[in-house]
Amino acid sequence: MKNTLKENAEALAMKTVLSYINGKDPDEAIEKVLSWVDKFDEKEGTVAKQRKLIHQVLGDKNSNWYKLVTSFWTDIDPEVRQRTFENFIINATILGGRRKKEAREKYGCNIPWTILLDPTSACNLHCVGCWAAEYGNKLNLSYETLDSIINQANEIGTRMFLYTGGEPLVRKADIIKLCEAHPDSQFMAFTNGTLIDDKFAEDMLRVKNFVPAISVEGFGEATDSRRGHGTYDKVVQAMEILRKHKLPFGVSCCYTHQNYKVIGSEEYFDWMVNMGAKFAWFFTYMPVGVGAPTDLMARAEDREYMYHKIREYRHTKPIFTMDFWNDGEYVNGCIAGGRFYLHINANGDCEPCAFIHYSDTNIHDHSLIEALQSPLFQQYAQHQPFSPNYLRPCPLLDNNGALAEMVHASGAESTDLSAKENVDELCGKCKAAAENWKPVADELWHKSHPGEPV
Description:
This protein has 454 residues and is α/β, with parallel strands linked by helices. It contains 18 helices and eleven strands. The chain has a nine-stranded mixed sheet with strand order 7-6-5-4-3-2-1-8-9. It has a two-stranded antiparallel sheet with strand order 10-11. Helix 14 (300-313) crosses helix 18.
């Protein structure tokens, strides 16, 4: 379904306003954007909650949030900034939000805000504890398949796409080609950064709708110990190239029992800001895959440390952060299973989460909607949230046995590309972590949400 005449007219009007704002002084531009979004959304209230939050964080010109937003005028190419704002605000959030709501009602299933796609299982590194390191150059989603998924997603309002892997930039040419083919969608990639060079930065500058999130484990020693000698220097070089070309980028951090104090340090946050990163995604290590080491798993006290540190720096550091486990309270629990996102691996298996390698549907045999309506995804929709304490969002790491129950009920099978993993055994590896985290999470929840159930 193409855009309706009404959607085209509204998009044109909004793009005209953004184009006008884009050339202004950042202080005046922010004021105009807030006024415009309020006026546009006042009848439908599609993003009322987001509007309130935006007013709150941008109301103080001395705040770290205000500094972050204004940095898009000083640090980022104006045409890239324009396209990013158009895709994120207009296409993905406002117009896309309407379509997603309509699709949920029409199809009776979760409709994702974003889709994670693995263009390839190949990777040029061999990181400790990473399942992709075991897969090798076995599988790829063809350009035609990726293009079809994006088209199907656009039909139901999804305009955000994140490439994972493997190392997605092994498929640089196809990624750029997809950006060109879908200028009204926004693309990101979780990448080790070692394949970013001036030529690729120039391609990014040309297409304007691709943003990398570079994986870093801390400083030199921590990053190289897990990703290989010399990786940290290549990461720094990639960031310098992106900054030179005035391109936005972020950082992806996996915290473990070994590196959590580095990842959560003020020194590290200052380093990310000084390098030019605009956002940072935080993940905790998951022992996914047969034989995956469990000693890297963050302990309850490690996770609590990250909970407090990330919240502390949100008041002081000009960088947007998201902790995909500890931020469950902001999104009412688990976001997987199509509720906010799903994952399609390089074999085409439609998985509820990048960390949950079980599926009952393959995109080569079924449409995207059929995947979202599949028994496993319906199990997710029926059981979310998995706990009334949103600091325990995950059906694997936080609510032991919940994942196994859904996998067994749906008949889903392991999609691990190297060795099939029994879901009960996987849950068994996470049982102690779930039991140890529960009392800590319950205490934190009681402090911030007194009187609410856990």
